[in-house]
Structure formats: C-alpha cells, structure tokens
Amino acid sequence: WQFLISALLAAGLASNPGVAASTSATAPKPLTGFSNGQKNWIIAAGTTRKESVFTFSEVQSEGNGWVVIYQIVNGKPDGEKYLGAAFVPSGNSKSVAVKVNYVPKKGEHFLVMLHRDVNEDKVFDFVFVDPPNVLDRAVVEGSKMIARIFTSP
User: Fold this and answer.
1) Distance of CA 82 to CAs 5, 33, 92, 123, 124, Å?
2) What gap in Å lies between CA 1 and CA 22, rounded to an integer?
3) pLDDT at 41
4) Which residues, in sequence order, are bridge partners of residue 151?
5) Are 101 and 52 in contact (CB under 8 A)?
6) pLDDT truncated to tens, each residue of the chain (153 aa)?
7) For residues 124 and 118, what is the distance between their CA atoms, to the nearest angstrom?
8) pTM for the model
9) Spatial contact of 142 and 28, defined as CB atoms under 8 Å apart
10) Quick one: how far is CA 55 from the chain centroid?
C-alpha cells in the first residue's frame, strides 16, 4: 500500500484504526495519483467536522465499499494505518459521516479514500494480502486511486 502511494506520488497491518501520528505543519505535496473518477468519487470540498466526525457531502461507489481516512504526515499520506472508516452501499450516498480515533485540530490535512468491500462482509478488512494491497482494496479508475486531500475545518 505504502509502495503504491509512493509510486503514485512520484508519477497497517492492524485491523483497527491506528493511533494518530503527530502531523507536520507541512502542506501535503501535490498528489497526481489521486483523483475522482467517472464511476466513483468522493466530494471533499465543504467537508464538515463535529468533534471527531467528518461528514462528506457525497460519495459515489460502484459497489459496496468504505470511505477511509488517513492522516498526512510530513506532507504524505500515512498508508500504514487508517484513522477511521465508514461503510457506503453501492450507488450514491449523501452526508457520509466518518469517525476518526481522535479530535483533529483545525487545519490538519487528511486523505479520504474509497475502498471496495471485496468480500461483501460489511467489515473493513485492513489486512495486507499481497503488498501493497489490503483485502478491501483501494478503488482505482484507470491509473488514479479514488481519493482526495482535505483540510480539517
């Protein structure tokens, strides 16, 4: 996973959300490998937050999946652990709330990414099966992972 993120930037092994790493004041680097697609997307503009819950206005998923939040550390996404995940059914979902494992500060940067619920069990399986992939794989359209950078309000 980390290799894939690094490769996309250049052109967890745990099943529970990891402990938040300290963030850098450094803004995220331009992420050319992350985008919205024509069949899958996450609207990150206008994301709201109440305490430790982020709400995204719209998520489109071509199959059951997960909206997953990763922290940005030293300008890059930390793909070794995730901070929170929320199930989304196939189709269009409005007001998707994702609870993270701490109360973020205003101005912190995060990556929100769409993953597919591969085994359709409604459990986010963040277990590496064939590095860099976890069982519930990141959704990719063409050469772009369906993911967006956003800033905590």
Assistant:
1) 14, 19, 23, 14, 11
2) 20
3) 98
4) 109
5) yes
6) 444 444 444 332 223 333 333 344 455 555 567 899 999 999 999 999 999 999 999 999 999 999 999 999 888 898 888 999 999 999 999 999 999 999 999 999 999 999 999 999 999 999 878 777 788 999 999 989 999 999 999
7) 9
8) 0.81
9) no
10) 13
Give the sign of the dihedral formed by CA 15, CA 16, CA 19, CA 24: positive
User: Tell me, what amino acid is at 120?
Assistant: E
Distance CA 104, CA 51 (A): 7
Distance, first Cα to last Cα, the chain: 27
- Which residue bears the tokens 């800033």? 151
**What is the model's pLDDT at position 75?**
86
Q: Report d(CA 134, CA 118) in Å as an integer.
A: 10
Burial of 110 (0-12, 13-18, 19+ CB in 10 A): buried
To which H or E segment does residue 4 belong? Answer: helix 2-10
DSSP line for 44-102 = -TT-EEETTEEEEEEEEESSSEEEEEEEEETTEE-TT--SEEEEE-SEEEEEEEEE-SS
* Residue keyed to tokens 């950078």: 149
